[in-house]
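dude i think i finally got it to work??
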Amino acid sequence: MKRADVVVIGAGSAGSVTARRCSEMGLKTVLLDRKPRFLIGQKVCGDEISRSHFDATGIDYPQYDEISSSISGADVYPPNLENELRVRGWAEFDGWTVHRLNFGQRLLNDAMRSGVEFHSDCHVTRPIMRGEQVVGVEYKDLSNKEELSISSKLVVDASGFAGVFRSKIDNDLIEASIEKEDVALCYREIIRLKSPLAEPEVARVLLGGKYAPSGYAWVFPKGEQEVNVGVGITGGQGKGSPKSYYFKFRDEYPLLFDSEVLDSGGGAVPVRRPIKSLVADGIAFVGDAALQVNPIHGGGIGAGMRAGIILGEVAKRAIARRELTAKGLWHYNMRFQSGFGQRLASLEIFKRLLQDVTDEEMDFGFEKRLLEADDLMAANRGDGLSLSPLDKLKRVKRGIGKIGLLRKLQSAATLMKKMSAAYKNYPSHLSGLDEWNNQILEIVNQAVFR
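look at this
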């Protein structure tokens, strides 16, 4: 049996960064992925990532063929496509749409150069358990059908949100399944436009039920004449497939007329707060497997990278102390959940607000500027919707025709602050987890804005 300090399952952005950081900390690290080596990094997603994630982690910026386009702004449209919010001049918003394959290959190469042992074409079948402790994994080499196993001090699940590995571990700390309403089904195409974009550095986001019930449509530049365009709708709603909504959007949105499809595909992403505990005995979760995504749009590259750096450092400490129980790994929970995790969790409330308001209310809110660009950026920072008494007075005057919508905004602002505060006070010991999680569920259950 092969032995390692750390086994990481999944060589996506979160898995590759975690493996690299573990190796940099002096840990013998093995990275496994089901895909062939040359396909690592290929994934259906929006491809957009903020510069701030690289500044926070110290990972080198994308460059050369890893970059499709630089992004420095966004236009957010209500259902009637009028009175859009123009988000400009926010340094934390600046970033790129990346060439997903080239960027993923670079992260993997960085991990391997740091000393990570990488194996492609490997299907991890189940955990190796010693009592309640995960002590390794069994996997099949898909190239020769050989059954293999690795023993390790720590297993990191970076295999994606579906939780196939997570669901095979019976532990009260682990959320084995995710509600359908917390999953977005997506379909996207890479398209060459008939004419160059007027603003190739500006992303477009379109809200409302016409094209994306309980979700949104997007147009993200990947060059002057190429875009990543798609639709994501929340699962479990019985509203049809995202592909059918996407084709309606493409056929009706003038920018996309007479365009050439270069690539297409669909997938599913989680759109809720991170799982209640990122660790259990002998195992930790990172990236989509930990639901470390922005609940508004499902983007998780940056969050997964941030978590991977933290996890690598916590793994070193836990292994040095020979404390690979949940208690010994708990510092990963505390650092991520009370930090970037609280930003993600508060955005779940904002997502639920956007899902529950009607198209008519949303059109009115954009027209009267009951929701402003500053609100979007404050929410993205985890600051909630900060409505001062003066702000409230101004918005009451503008929104006198729909007082109910103003009440929904105020309720969402209050709940976002509660959620953020709860995550900032994540329990310092696993004995406090149940009480804390009940508090979180109570906040989520209050987030109904119909």
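The longest strand covers residues 146-157.
im so relieved honestly
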